[in-house]
C-alpha cells in the first residue's frame, strides 16, 4: 500500500518562498498521479497542482499558476511543491495525494491515498 508523508511547511511572510515535500513509499503503478491539495480554515479542499508518474505532465490551479512549481525527484519517490511569491490566501494545510486515475487530476474524489498534511501559514 502506498503511503505519503508531507514535510516542509511552516511560517512565511507574504512574498517569501517555501517548499513542501511529499515522500512516497510502497508500490506505485506507472499510471500514478501525485497531487497537492490544500484546505484553508472554513473553506473546501482545493486542488493546487498535480504531476504524472514520469514528471512530464504537470497541472496547476489558476490561483497558483506562475507562482508554484510541482516536480519529482529522479527516483520518483519524492514530489515537491515549490511555492514562490506567497500570499496570505495561500495559508492552509497542504496535503499530497496519489491516484491511478487518468485525466481527473483536479478531483479529490479520485485520489485514494492521502498524507497527513502540513501547515503553511503566510503572514502579511
Keywords, please?
single chain; 124 residues; mainly beta
Number of strands: 11
What structural class do helix, strand and pairing data support? mainly beta
> Shape from CA axes?
globular
Percent of residues in helices comes to under 10%
User: Order of helices and strands, N to C?
Assistant: EEEEEEEEEEE
Uncertain segments of ≥5 residues (pLDDT<50)? none
List strands and helices in order, with pairings.
Layout (H helix, E strand, L loop, with lengths): L2 E5 L2 E4 L4 E8 L7 E7 L6 E7 L5 E3 L7 E5 L5 E6 L8 E8 L13 E2 L3 E6 L1
Parallel strand pairs: 2-11
Antiparallel strand pairs: 1-3, 3-8, 4-5, 4-9, 5-6, 7-8, 9-10, 9-11
Task: Describe, in plain words, how this protein is organized in 3D.
- The chain is mainly β.
- It has strands spanning 3-7, 10-13, 18-25, 33-39, 46-52, 58-60, 68-72, 78-83, 92-99, 113-114, 118-123.
- The strands form 2 sheets. Strands 2, 4, 5, 6, 9, 10 and 11 form a 7-stranded mixed β-sheet that branches. It has a 4-stranded antiparallel β-sheet with strand order 1-3-8-7, with no helix packed on it.
- A hairpin with a 5-residue loop joins strand 7 and strand 8.
- The radius of gyration is 13 Å and the shape is globular.
- The N and C termini lie far apart (40 Å).
- The mean pLDDT is 93.
Brief overview, please?
This protein has 124 residues and is an all-beta fold. The protein has strands spanning 3-7, 10-13, 18-25, 33-39, 46-52, 58-60, 68-72, 78-83, 92-99, 113-114, 118-123.
Amino acid at each position: 500500500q502506498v503511503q505519503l508523508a508531507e514535510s516542509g511547511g511552516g511560517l512565511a511572510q507574504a512574498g517569501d518562498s517555501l517548499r513542501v515535500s511529499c515522500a512516497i513509499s510502497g508500490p506505485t503503478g506507472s499510471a500514478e498521479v501525485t497531487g497537492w491539495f490544500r484546505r484553508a480554515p472554513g473553506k473546501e479542499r482545493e486542488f493546487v497542482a498535480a504531476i504524472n508518474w514520469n514528471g512530464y505532465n504537470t497541472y496547476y490551479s489558476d490561483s497558483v499558476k506562475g507562482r508554484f512549481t510541482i516536480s519529482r525527484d529522479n527516483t520518483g519517490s519524492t514530489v515537491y511543491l515549490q511555492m514562490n511569491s506567497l500570499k496570505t490566501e495561500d495559508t492552509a494545510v497542504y496535503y499530497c495525494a496519489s491516484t491511478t486515475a487518468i485525466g481527473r487530476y483536479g478531483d479529490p474524489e479520485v485520489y485514494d491515498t492521502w498524507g497527513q498534511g502540513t501547515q503553511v501559514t503566510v503572514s502579511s
